[in-house]
Amino acid sequence: MTATDERPAMPRVFPAGFVWGTATAAYQIEGAVDTDGRGPSIWDTFCRVPGAVARGESGEFACDHYHRWQEDVDLMKDLGAGAYRFSVAWPRVLPDGRGPVNRRGLDFYRRLVDALREGGIEPYVTLYHWDLPQALEDRGGWRVRGTAERFADYAEVMYEALGESVSNWITLNEPYCSSIVGYGEGRHAPGAKEGEGALAAAHHLLLGHGLAVTRLREMARPGQQIGVTLNMSPTVPVTSSPQDLQAARRMDLLVNRQFTEPLFGGAYAADMAETFGRISDLSFRRDGDLEIIGRPVDFLGVNYYYRLHVEAAPYDEPDPARRTAFDLGVRTVTPEHARTSGLGWVVEPEGLYETLVGLTSRYPDLPPVYITENGYGDDGALEDDGRIDYLRDHLAATRDAMEAGADVRGYFCWSLMDNFEWARGYSARFGIVHVDYDTQVRTPKASFHWMRDFITDPVVTAPVTARPATTAPVDILVAGTPRGERPVGD
Ligand code: FCB
After folding, report:
1. Within a 10 A sphere around the Cβ of 85, how many other Cβ atoms?
2. Mean pLDDT throughout 185-209?
3. How far apart, in whole angstroms, are the C-alpha atoms of residue 371 and residue 193?
4. What's the pTM?
5. Whole-number Å distance between alpha carbons of 419 and 415
6. In sequence order, which residues have a C-beta less than 8 Å from that of residue 246 and are 6 or more positions away?
7. 129-187 per-position pLDDT tens digit
8. Where are the domains of the chain?
9. What is the CATH topology of the domain spanning 19-461?
């Protein structure tokens, strides 16, 4: 039993108009990688690298959603969802990343959007969920500015095609993962292990976002919304020693503030040069970039899964297997007796509360927030009580954060169905619908039925969410530190 379980349970009612949906991403569900003129993406290439993905799996077939989309839309109707967040595969629309448009690729998304709208489901379109056209990677990928410009061109193509029917646009999904995990740690495509390259990728992703916002803004009609999705993980020092506090702050910069500060704080994070000085001189920044990156957006999408428990580690890790391009002198640990998911991820709904309340207090101009991903991974059991508990507790934390002042407008569960979970392949399952990959049969899990009842009557009864001050002194909740106040030990 955790401390949270011992708190009194109380019912919380979500307001009318709150958006309920599920989320997916193109490479994780579509399959059909060679169909109708789609070009290769960096994930097609990465999956062929021996050892890159568990069991050598790939998104080649995935959930075959490219052909079974109607059935998947029907599942969403059955769920009673009012919204669906999916991503467009850039190389399906622009096989070379630029140049001629592949009409057949666009038509797929047109059909999908039309079916969603007919079913009363509002599409939330993510333009980039990690599947960069390989042709652009061959020209330097996100390490180079040109890719940011190509991204804005692609955004324009998509708006021209779907702007009549799609009112909610998300530029990027989790630029932290596509830069640091993809270009720094090499765990994701394109599998690079670079320091400078990864920081440049992070910057150019942000720049691409800003350029796309500018382009979409010129075309958008009143009421249409443009946003960006970040993954947020509050960092918690394992002890209150100055060393661990500083380590947690470095990690917070890498994962969170590197992105939130220029997007919503009007400045690059002040500790960038000091923290990353060993890795890069940040000379890829140009005058005027910050202004482009910081163009106002209509919403922030927050993806939340877990907090990061961080301790200081020696710099210059001697073990080559543990060494990364990001030698920040930090190590993440799983706290003893932690509640964990089927994948061993730490389950801490209070981290979602901290994220939402922390962002609200840190950034006075923060736009409304949608939780664009939140979910639970396991081995795929149909009786998935662990997932139901996870969803319930995170929904409670969301409602508590709203009560404390966070302006949250919607919640998208990750994921509609089991899918290709990147480097983990197909064994990690996040769906509220089970997918049998041999037969492509979809079977709703217990969590699907729970979610359907919940959407009908969005009241959640769960233990009171642990407030930051009850889990740790507030001054060490680094991500939630109000602007201007420096955490202890910094
Ligand atoms: C997020 C990704 C999403 C999915 C979940 C489990 O980081 O955005 O595609 O893999 O994790």
Report:
1. 30
2. 98
3. 30
4. 0.95
5. 8
6. 312, 489, 490
7. 999 999 999 999 999 999 999 999 999 999 999 999 999 999 999 999 999 999 999 99
8. 19-461
9. TIM Barrel (3.20.20)
Residue 403 CB contacts under 8 Å (≥ 6 apart), including other chains: 12
Alpha carbon distance 357, 352 (integer Å): 8
Q: Which residues are catalytic?
A: 174, 373
Note the pLDDT tens digit of each residue in 326-383. 889 999 999 999 999 999 999 999 999 999 999 999 999 999 999 999 999 999 999 9
Cβ(123)–Cβ(165) below 8 Å: yes
C-beta of residue 110 within 8 angstroms of C-beta of residue 151: no
> What pLDDT is stored for residue 462 in this prediction?
85
User: Can you tell me the distance from the alpha carbon of 487 to that of 328, in angstroms, rounded to the nearest whole number?
Assistant: 18
In this structure, the chain runs to a length of: 490
CB 292 within 8 A of CB 210: yes
Distances (CA, A) of 84 to 161, 225, 373, 413, 440: 18, 15, 11, 10, 21
Q: Give me the phi and psi of 6, to 5 degrees please.
A: -80, -5
Residue of 171, 233, 303, 432 best suited for mutating to test ligand 1, as the one with most atoms within 8 Å of CB = 303
- In the chain, the amino acid numbered 320 is P
Residue with tokens 């979409």: 216
Tell me the two tokens of residue 15.
Answer: 């307001």
Measured from the CA of 428, which atom of ligand 1 is nearest? 6
| Structure token digits, residue 472 | 């740790």
**What stretches of 365-456 adopt beta strand conformation (E)?**
369-373, 408-414, 433-436, 441-444
Residue type, 228: V
Residues framing ligand 1 (Cβ under 6 A): 25, 28, 173-174, 177, 231, 303, 373, 414, 421-422, 430
